[in-house]
Amino acid sequence: EAQVTQNPRYLITVTGKKLTVTCSQNMNHEYMSWYRQDPGLGLRQIYYSMNVEVTDKGDVPEGYKVSRKEKRNFPLILESPSPNQTSLYFCASSFVKGGPQHFGDGTRLSIL
Amino acid sequence: DQQVKQNSPSLSVQEGRISILNCDYTNSMFDYFLWYKKYPAEGPTFLISISSIKDKNEDGRFTVFLNKSAKHLSLHIVPSQPGDSAVYFCAASALVSSSNTGKLIFGQGTTLQVKP
């Protein structure tokens, strides 16, 4: 089954404690992306990757890092989380950049 | 600056009737538009899309209309079913632009409730 898998699904943590949200896709897609969803703002892109070792900033990259060492994996790293990063996060992948993206089921992060 | 706007946060319709969800955009570089459906505790799932070279695209009960001069698109669901109750997001991208980063710009979402 074609899917994008995110882990964890839920996480409550404290300010400053580094965390990583993993994302893996099994569709051999080159394009991957991270979004955050906040009330009244829709989904906003954090970072994207066009292929292995090729990553770039989206609209709201501050406080986040990513890496793309393998085609299937695209982890999101919060080096020093802060309460304003409390949000619902989605990883997505697509065959064509700008085309229909497949989304994971989301990770709800709460930073206290 | 919200480049893609869904001005109706919610919509309620009766089962069997038509649901019309609206979306406006401001960037004339957008040339590809998509609708996603999202159920609680799940990620958005792709529903239907339309290229700017067309003004209508149909897939079963779902039809998307694009009015480029008005920078407006709409999603029609006919007939509406209770299982269609979800949050609907429209999104846009600039596929043929030389600066295409693959980014989808999303609207805020509209919550559709279909009553039995």
What's the layout of helices and strands?
The complex is a heterodimer of chains A (about 110) and B (about 120).
Chain A: E1 4-7, E2 10-13, E3 19-25, E4 31-38, E5 42-51, E6 54-57, E7 65-66, E8 76-78, E9 87-94, E10 102-103, E11 107-111
Chain B: E1 4-5, E2 10-14, E3 19-25, E4 32-38, E5 45-51, E6 56-59, E7 62-67, E8 72-77, E9 86-93, E10 105-106, E11 110-115
Parallel strand pairs in B: 2-11
Antiparallel strand pairs in B: 1-3, 3-8, 4-5, 4-9, 6-7, 7-8, 9-10, 9-11
The string of secondary-structure elements of chain B, in order, is EEEEEEEEEEE
Mean pLDDT of chain B: 93
Total number of helical segments of chain A? 0
Order of helices and strands of chain A: EEEEEEEEEEE
Distance between the termini of chain B: 38 Å
What kind of sheet is the major sheet of chain A? 7 strands, mixed
Regions with little confidence, pLDDT below 50 for 5+ residues of chain B: none
Strand content of chain A: over 45%
Keywords:
heterodimer; A: 112 residues; mainly beta; 7-stranded mixed β-sheet; 0% helix; 51% strand; B: 116 residues; globular
